[in-house]
Design brief:
Number of helices: 6
Largest sheet: none
Shape: rod-shaped
Structural class: mainly alpha
Radius of gyration: 22 Å
CATH superfamily of one domain: lambda repressor-like DNA-binding domains
CATH topology of one domain: 434 Repressor (Amino-terminal Domain)
Distance between the termini: 64 Å
Order of helices and strands: HHHHHH
Strand content: under 5%
CATH architecture of one domain: Orthogonal Bundle
Helix content: 55-70%
Length: 90
């Protein structure tokens, strides 16, 4: 499976959008769009959101880290365990 940039490129192609039109709709330069589609790490996340929004995919942005079973398991392992003390009853 390709990275986010590759997925956005495929989504653009499925919508039959040219780079110039999508860049204009997203309010970014064609060069920035090209960097996004190549997966260049220097591109700000806001630009990714702008591209997703221009293609009607902004709802997917909120779900980028939502399904994270490994992260949840690690988090649960590190949670402090509550220990009940046996207190004598009067």
């Amino acid at each position: 499976m390709g990275g986010v940039g590759e997925q956005l490129r495929l989504a653009r192609l499925r919508r039959r959008l040219g780079t110039e039109l999508l860049a204009e709709r997203a309010g970014i330069s064609r060069a920035t769009l090209h960097k996004i589609e190549r997966g260049d790490p220097s591109v700000a996340m806001g630009n990714y959101f702008a591209v997703m929004n221009a293609m009607g995919l902004a709802d997917g942005f909120a779900n980028l880290g939502a399904d994270d079973p490994l992260g949840r398991a690690i988090q649960d392992d590190q949670l402090p365990q509550r220990v009940r003390r046996n207190t004598p009853t009067p």
